[in-house]
């Protein structure tokens, strides 16, 4: 009996847990992986890439969400290049601090490749980060650029918004544990009209979510869970046992406060807001002549464009 194909979004996170930055709010800052762990991460990623290449009857979208920085490792760059050329891969994206040079993207298919880039003002020279963003734009690589909404980052965010190409979306993540007054939130919303979605955790208990049905989380061993935040196992990717567990199910958690989680809640309109760019956090294209720019605002339900 032939197995029916599926349309599946996969959030992949392997053993890698090291980063070249030392952000004070990150538990993986300046952490160094042992050679054994790096070899295990490389082997796990190559196994996953091989599996994806064999899924010719499926339609796959992949977001790499490593605990740390993946693009400084050659095997992540190679995986992105190889996956981007597979006909069954609709999108392959990665979260990155963009500390790696961007020349490797020329080998990838720009129709499938995308980057989710985060700017850390106290970790990298501004001009270097901006130059790499401009290189991505010049190469036609889909990407979003973002920053953590700490008070000390506001002027950096304003400068970045002014210097980025108008069509590049600048997102702002609410800082963990930080409460924003309405006045503070308004300043961030002037830069990211969708900041309202990040400002407060979303009540999710009992609400329908695409995770576990059309979206799954996979670790380096192939263990499948509905998302990164729910530990219940649904099976294993490599023996196919997860497929019988794919079905709609309500969220078991009280709240969801991370974009890679709540973007999949059916109670929110974010699949429409980010139509065509859910994985890389790129909103649907603006109308002709419009762009993201300083000063334009929107309600949390529908983004407005400046002209």
From TrEMBL:
SUPFAM superfamilies attached to this UniProt entry: Radical SAM enzymes (SSF102114)
InterPro entries found in the cross-reference section: Aldolase_TIM, Radical_SAM_STM4011-like, rSAM_sf
NCBIfam families linked to this entry: rSAM_STM4011 (NF038073)
Protein name in UniProt: Radical SAM protein
Native source organism of the sequence: Streptomyces malaysiensis
């Amino acid at each position: 009996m032939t197995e029916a194909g599926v349309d599946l979004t996969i959030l992949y996170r392997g053993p890698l847990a090291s980063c070249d930055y030392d952000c004070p709010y990150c538990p993986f800052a300046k952490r160094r992986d042992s050679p054994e762990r790096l070899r295990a991460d490389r082997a796990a990623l190559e196994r996953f890439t091989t599996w994806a290449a064999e899924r010719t009857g499926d339609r796959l979208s992949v977001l790499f969400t490593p605990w740390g920085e993946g693009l400084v490792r050659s095997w992540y760059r190679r995986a992105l290049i190889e996956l981007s050329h597979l006909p069954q891969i609709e999108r392959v994206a990665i979260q990155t601090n963009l500390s790696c040079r961007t020349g490797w993207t020329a080998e990838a298919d720009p129709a499938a490749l995308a980057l989710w880039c985060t700017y850390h003002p106290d970790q990298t020279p501004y001009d270097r980060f901006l130059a790499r963003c401009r290189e991505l734009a010049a190469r036609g690589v889909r990407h979003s650029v973002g920053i953590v909404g700490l008070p000390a980052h506001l002027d950096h965010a304003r400068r970045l918004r002014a210097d980025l190409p108008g069509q590049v979306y600048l997102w702002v993540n609410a800082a963990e544990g930080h409460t924003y007054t309405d006045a503070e939130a308004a300043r961030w919303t002037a830069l990211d009209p969708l900041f309202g979605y990040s400002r407060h955790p979303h009540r999710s208990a009992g609400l329908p979510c695409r995770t576990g049905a059309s979206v799954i989380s996979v670790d380096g061993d192939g263990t499948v869970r509905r998302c990164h935040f729910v530990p219940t196992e649904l099976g294993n990717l490599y023996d196919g046992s997860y497929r019988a567990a794919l079905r709609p199910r309500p969220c078991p958690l009280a709240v969801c406060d991370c974009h890679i989680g709540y973007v999949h809640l059916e109670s929110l309109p974010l699949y429409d807001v980010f139509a065509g760019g859910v994985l890389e956090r790129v909103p649907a294209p603006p109308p002709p002549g419009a762009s993201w720019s300083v000063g334009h605002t929107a309600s949390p339900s529908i983004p407005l464009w400046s002209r």
